[in-house]
What we know:
The protein has helices at residues 7-14, 114-117, 131-140, 157-168, 184-192, 206-212, 217-230, 249-263, 288-300, 314-317; strands at residues 24-25, 29-31, 37-39, 47-48, 59-61, 66-68, 73-74, 76-81, 95-100, 127-128, 145-148, 173-178, 196-200, 234-241, 269-273, 306-309, 319-320, 327-332, 335-339, 341-342, 346-347, 370-372. It is α/β, with parallel strands linked by helices. The strands form 6 sheets. A 9-stranded mixed beta sheet has the order 16-15-14-13-12-11-9-8-22. A 3-stranded antiparallel beta sheet has the order 1-6-5, with no helix packed on it. The chain has a 3-stranded antiparallel beta sheet with strand order 2-3-4, with no helix packed on it. Bound molecules: iron/sulfur cluster (SF4). Residues 39, 41-42, 44-46, 54-56, 59, 105, 155 line the site of iron/sulfur cluster. Iron/sulfur cluster (SF4) is lined by residues 39, 41-42, 44-46, 54-56, 59, 105, 155.
Amino acid sequence: MWIGTGSSIVAWRAMKTTDDPGTLASRYWHRLEDGRVQCDLCPRECKLREGQRGFCFVRANEGDAVVLKTYGLSSGFCIDPIEKQPLSHFLPGTPVLSFGTAGCNLGCRFCQNWDMSKSREIATLADEASPEKIARVAEELGCRSVAFTYNDPVIFMEYAVDVAQACHERGIKAVAVTAGYISPEPRREFYRHMDAANVDLKGFSERFYSNVCSAHLEDVLETLVYLKEETDVWFEITTLLIPGENDSAEELGEMSEWVVENLGVDVPWHFSAFHPDWKMRNVRATPPATLARARNIAMERGVKFAYVGNVHNEAADSTWCPDCGEKLIGRDWYELTSWALGPGGKCARCGTTIPGVFEDAHGNWGRRRLPVSMKGR
Ligand code: SF4
């Protein structure tokens, strides 16, 4: 067992009910009249008998209480460009220490990280790392932020919150990459500790969410509105376009109108390409033209910063001043190719302020991915 320095770390530690490595008592559950316990962390509200695991597989009923089984356990660490999350308006060009655990609370048939999100091999999660160790290693390696990614941090919320707190003590930011499928009370706790997030808006129909993702659209929209109206978290959204599933002009138009009306015109929106994977190997990859069309639809409805992802398209990957048309941040996939943003995140030509978290200088990490082992550190 390790000792954290943050008050939350001590608080979570105090709730530890077992000496099993990786097991930590959860705060979000209640007992049902029929003797089961209900996990209240996400809208799935799994009802569990003793010994049963939830849909996400990493929460379980042990000792008549809900516990998290992956505290401090990771499927591996890697230094990525922040653009890979993707975040285009948050400390551009800087390196981020990324990690995930196992399991997921959605059941997306197209999952691009299914080896981790569907993993039932908690025992083989390779890298054990305390929150303090992660923060220290991130600082030593020059990372400006730590990202909870690869699988959804909602399901390992207590670990993510403790890591975020340990990072903040060293001036390192915390980034969540998530589907936004979380219940209201834990949502407040979770986002209180995050500096930035990329939230998937996977489609704009209940049919798509329930048939393809085993989830519900309304809960995700609630999270996005919560982020916009009640937090200072910098957030961007991502839509993975799947041919024939969520890429119709009608659906994209409705989604764009909802985004403009509820989140405003300044939220950066990433349209990324699907590759056949997991249970959707019979669907073709997204043609680049589909991404460009989606970006156009969003911008026609008023979205100022729409991007394409997982393809080379420098024009559609770059940030342009919405007022004078100047190219401010050139990007090719994850790599910065030019920089013309002035001090304070303003367009150097016309002075328009670009929304985001910018410093006067950009990072130079490039497109590299560098695996990091925590062993011996
Ligand atoms: S976090 Fe996991 S166990 Fe809890 S409700 Fe969601 S899927 Fe079920």
